């Protein structure tokens, strides 16, 4: 009852795979996030956006899951960005070093235009 | 889950926020969570002012248990005066001249699904508030 | 509330079962208290993260997720600071030297276990963090956040 507070959706826009992470990213999110990543990777997506929404709570276990995604993104030659993070979690992503591997954008639109400059197309 | 507070007015809102967090996270509807918050605040205020006579050394203890059917909140004080609870359904119109404490007790009876007061073996009083989880959405109106 | 705390501070105690998810109750309760004390939103967010990590550690590590074991969170309200102590019943002791390491993301890429950020985050986000043995024999962490008041009219 107190555990599962994350909904994960996959969408595609302008050649970018958008993974919406709605809710809390903690240890309980592991299967959902890894599953979504595997799904877009199997499809051959090269540009991936993790779009955070309603994230009150991202903890160190959630950070470890995201580092796992970055590890694979680097190995697979994909490009990862994040959007929708609150100022607090933007700060934490910078402290941890995640921001060096996944560019932080305020909004989904900002991230999509940046991906477009990198060559993402429909 | 258990919360222990000093008997100082104002601290009941901390217990309220802790219990609201639990209630919300175990799937009780937002309207019903408001009922839980109001009833709990009244019970804590009663425990602080009447049970513990606002002696900061005395503690108010709030014990919450959740099962499939119910959220049970027990509020313990260290005093000995058992409040008299009005009967359901509360006759608001007949109690126009009730004291503030009386109003608080009427609110508690109106907002909870079950409520009882028992003397605690350690010379205190325990007020036990019960909220049914399957009534999610049926906010009790105070009319 | 600010006119009622003495120099020693008023104490609110929260006892939680060692089940993941209950750390959220501690986070919400401490955040509600900090808001009433007048902490800025940014500090409250930091506090939420630090308490979440401390309670999660106590549940998972100290109490080995045995739901019958309690995690005790003591919030002490002082005029100029909030002190948070989190203790477990110490099924497993924390290796104190490991509470001082600074993890690096590049190392994490190489490891199977990509975790180990919790205690470092607590240290980064709180003004004071100290690990000790709890009186009952478990692990205890004591964290302090100072209430920064606007400089106008101070002293």
List the helices and strands and how they pair.
The complex is a heterotrimer of chains A (122), B (143) and C (155).
Chain A: E1 6-13, E2 16-23, H1 30-42, E3 47-53, H2 60-75, E4 79-83, H3 87-96, E5 103-105, H4 108-117
Parallel strand pairs in A: 2-3, 3-4, 4-5
Antiparallel strand pairs in A: 1-2
Helix pairs in contact in A: 1-2
Chain B: E1 2-6, H1 12-25, H2 30-51, E2 59-66, E3 70-77, H3 100-111, E4 114-120, E5 124-132
Antiparallel strand pairs in B: 1-2, 2-3, 3-5, 4-5
Helix pairs in contact in B: 1-2, 2-3
Chain C: E1 10-17, H1 23-37, H2 41-62, E2 70-78, E3 81-87, H3 105-110, H4 118-125, E4 128-133, E5 139-146
Helix pairs in contact in C: 1-2, 2-4
Please sum up the structure shown:
The complex is a heterotrimer of chains A (about 120), B (about 140) and C (about 160). Chain A is an alpha/beta fold and about 120 residues long. Helices cover about 40% and strands about 25% of the residues of chain A.
